[in-house]
Amino acid sequence: MDEIRRLVWEGALNVQVTVKSSLLIGDADLRHYTLNLRLPRETYIAIYLRTIIDRLRNYLRTDPDNEDQFVWLECQGVPVYWNYPIGILYDFMTGLNPSDRQRSHCSGELLNVWKLELAQGSQLPPGVIPFGSELQLVRTYWMQQWKQACYVLNGSSKQMMSLSMQDTQKFWDALIARDQNAFRQVASKIIPAKPRSIPICIHQSLPKMQMFQPIVAGHKSDGSRMKLKDLMKEQFSSLFVDDNSLSKVVSNGIELPLTLDLLDVYARFMSLDGYLHLSLCLLSESEYGRAIAR
Amino acid sequence: MLTHAEYSAQLRRLCDDTLKNSDLITSIRPSLADGEVLFRTALPSSVAKHNLLCNIEFKICYSHVYQEPRLLFRLWRRVPSQDEAIDFLTPWFPSDVVQLLGIQDGFTVSLDALFSNSSHSQETWFSFHPCNTAEIVGDKQDYRDDYLNRWLSMFLFSWLAKS
């Protein structure tokens, strides 16, 4: 289990950030306003936004620190909600189907790069939390997410609220410094051995972007352990019919077998905010054909 | 703590009675099927001197995680345009919102992004965090039928009426 946790924590994405052309000063050269980054999947992109802005500010028409201006990122014109881990944003905003990715690698195609654009304006797109010049807002949001996850896990937020100031600081510092051991040490004070329920976020990009937060117990009423397929059948009965699923469940870029035990999936794939983030992706055409034939 | 069924029943009463009859509420838009109600209030006197703030919009919804009602709000401010001699309206996210509105200590208020049942999209709101709601409101059985009313008195009218 530790090895999977390590791989999840160390997972990373190639991200390319450019600037929307309407925001560029006239003679900017593409090479100068393009940033290529390798970012951990298990973090918030907002943590790096200040660095991105600082590297690109010389090519922007308007001062990004102007208090009447907001800055955000977009993927093909769709705003990127920084309040989810980057990895899950990539998975559901690109509709990532892991088997397609493997095929493209085999055919010798280029590196997977997630292309984002820096956008700026006097009005934020709906649903985007404004990003200030300091990380305090990100930290506050992250703490509230943990408080909520703690409530789902324990039936109370007390385990989170009673963390010492040192532990709370250590928890945040571990996220920033990418120190998995320190992060797990504090997280283990919040996550019980037998959770009351499991904090889960399911992200769906088609037919439209939606997010579901079902309240799911680790065990069914007959005492048996809840499987991933039980959850999916309960929540998305039209997509997961007996053995003919029309969709896949992806976490951290990996397709999860539906037979997995939900508590085990949580223990291995839990994200930086205490939630298990899952992305639904539709089967590819050939996979759909095979599913129908069965 | 309220079940969703109790919340739905009490939300209807809250709209028909408390919100409709309050002098502080200037408009109400219930969306009872979605378990939500939007409303606006007069500006608190404490912020009247802040001449660019022009609207406070509130939303009541239900937190299935905490099984509690949740109070959200957002501010709108005027941005005067010298060129066009008109004002533009824009959402406003001041970092000192608690002090600005005169919200009492004891409430945790922060920016949150929540999925709306009515718009089916993510929306940004300031949110009163609901984790210690039962302790603030009191959840004795005797109060249960009036829980939502008591909750709104504590979470909204306690500071709005004063400020």
3D structure, described in words:
- The complex is a heterodimer of chains A (294) and B (163).
- Chain A is built from 11 helices and 13 strands.
- In chain A, 32% of the residues are buried.
- Chain A has helices spanning 2-10, 46-56, 86-93, 98-106, 136-154, 158-161, 165-177, 180-187, 228-235, 262-269, 285-293; strands at residues 12-19, 35-40, 70-75, 78-79, 114-121, 198-204, 210-212, 215-216, 240-241, 244-245, 247-251, 254-255, 276-282.
- By secondary structure, chain A is α+β, with helices and mostly antiparallel strands.
- In chain A, strands 6, 7, 8, 11, 12 and 13 form a 6-stranded mixed β-sheet that branches. In chain A, strands 2-1-5-3-4 form a 5-stranded mixed β-sheet, with helices on one face.
- The longest helix of chain A has 19 residues, at 136-154.
- The two termini of chain A are 33 Å apart.
- Chain B has 163 residues and is of the alpha+beta class.
- Chain B has a single domain, classed as Yope Regulator, Chain: A (2-Layer Sandwich).
- In chain B, strands 1, 2, 3, 4, 5, 6 and 7 form a 7-stranded antiparallel β-sheet that branches.
- In chain B, strand 3 (53-63) and strand 4 form a beta hairpin.
- The radius of gyration of chain B is 16 Å and the shape is globular.
- The two termini of chain B are 28 Å apart.
- The A-B interface holds A 68, 81, 83, 122-124, 126-130, 132, 137, 140-141, 144, 147-148, 151-152, 157, 161, 208-211, 213, 215 and B 64-66, 79, 88, 90-91, 93, 95, 108, 110-113, 115, 120-124, 129, 131-132.
